[in-house]
Amino acid sequence: MENQPETTVRRHRRIIMFPLPFQGHINPMFQLANLLYSKGFSITILHTNFNAPKISNYPHFTFKSILDNDPEKRRFLLADFAQDFIHTQDHADALRHELKLLLASEKDEPVSCLITDALWHFTQSVADSLNLPRLVLRTTSVHSTIVYSSIPLLHARGYFTLDDSHSEEQVVEFPLLKVKDVKKIGIKSTKDLYAELIGNMVKQTKASSGIIWNSFKELEETELDRVPDDFPVPRFLILFPKYFKASSSSLQEQDQTIFPWLDQQPTKSVVYVSFGSLSQVEEKEFLEIAHGLVYSKQPFLWVVRMGFVKNSTWLESLPEGFPGERGRVVEWAPQHEVLAHEATGVFWTHSGWNSTMESICEGVPMICSSFWGDQPLDARYMSDVSRVGVYLENGLQREDIASVIRRILVDEEGEEIRERAQVLKQKADESVMKGGASSESVETLVDYISSL
Hints:
Elements: H1 4-10, E1 14-18, H2 23-38, E2 42-47, E3 62-65, H3 78-86, H4 89-105, E4 111-117, H5 123-129, E5 134-138, H6 142-149, H7 151-156, E6 170-171, E7 174-178, H8 179-183, H9 193-206, E8 211-214, H10 217-224, E9 235-238, H11 258-263, E10 270-274, H12 283-296, E11 300-303, E12 327-330, H13 335-340, E13 344-349, H14 353-361, E14 366-368, H15 375-386, E15 389-391, H16 398-409, H17 412-431, H18 437-451
Parallel strand pairs: 1-2, 1-4, 2-3, 4-5, 5-8, 8-9, 10-11, 10-13, 11-12, 13-14, 14-15
Antiparallel strand pairs: 6-7
Keywords: Transferase
GO molecular function: UDP-glucosyltransferase activity
Protein name: UDP-glucuronosyl/UDP-glucosyltransferase
């Protein structure tokens, strides 16, 4: 191979990577790890016991467990999440100890850098103390990164405390957004734990040696131009789903029995519904989703993971006979393969950034819901800027659900949305081709890490 000499040399350099232990953060980190391994670097993955990765899926990586937390710990809550990752002195000490051992033992393969999830903000001080460059993987969009960096300004101008009568008003500093989008991020004041977490993340990202986004230039070029000057670090946009699928890093068992059913459905007819690994709904909302899917008269594949419905185990609140012959309900699905299937016509998503990018890469238009965090920002961007989705922004009512499904899959307006989704897919394809923006960004990142 033409690249063999370069690859052989690079295999003598090691990168240490530290993903946040949640599905939406693990997937892009492992996609990046596979990409860097393919470019010749050795990879060590640091991980927690909570949501530990399936090590057997990655025999080419070295794994080290740190932060000896209870893998059966309480179920995810936002307050617990912020509490755990704000008060991180114990985490910092454990990481520093492990990194010292790795740096001392890797004489044949010197460590080039540490790459961590942006939310592991405490890792910057640890890396600095060891003179180890730290790069940040930001698992959201460039757009949301900019908004998050402006949270103190948005708070100072009172957006987070406005009452519902202002919900539809425009955010002056971010004309794309409505007040309700900003409020849905989930911050009550700059003193709450979530705001503190975001503030620390932004501060330590600015202090890092570089930012890597799961995105591509053609999607967010105008946003790149708006990244504040106080992010004085190299920036890399890499379209991960076009290089490696995320299925091997799934924390849940994927239902493969769905494909014979999908194969029997008409082309571009199926509504694929999945709200990610953390979102939850009330039972009333759950039933509205179910009835909306039935009212749409379209075939549907609905992912309902255990715990998705608050105060419920799984499907016990569904009406008798649901889903009938038209639908399938599963606990978890191989999302990349479902989106790539010719029967899939629209993806109803929680607007997590990984799911959004996977849908774009397969040319599948979206119905966008959102729950918290960056999701309302992503949903707004897909519906109002990229225009490859429709934002279901006023709650979950069965009539609205059925209407928007048919709007995309059946109505004339849907044809325009579907065409735009295909155009954006083509741009994504071109981005990873030789000479494309994402391809060039990969090579620039490899050269940059090699120079550290």
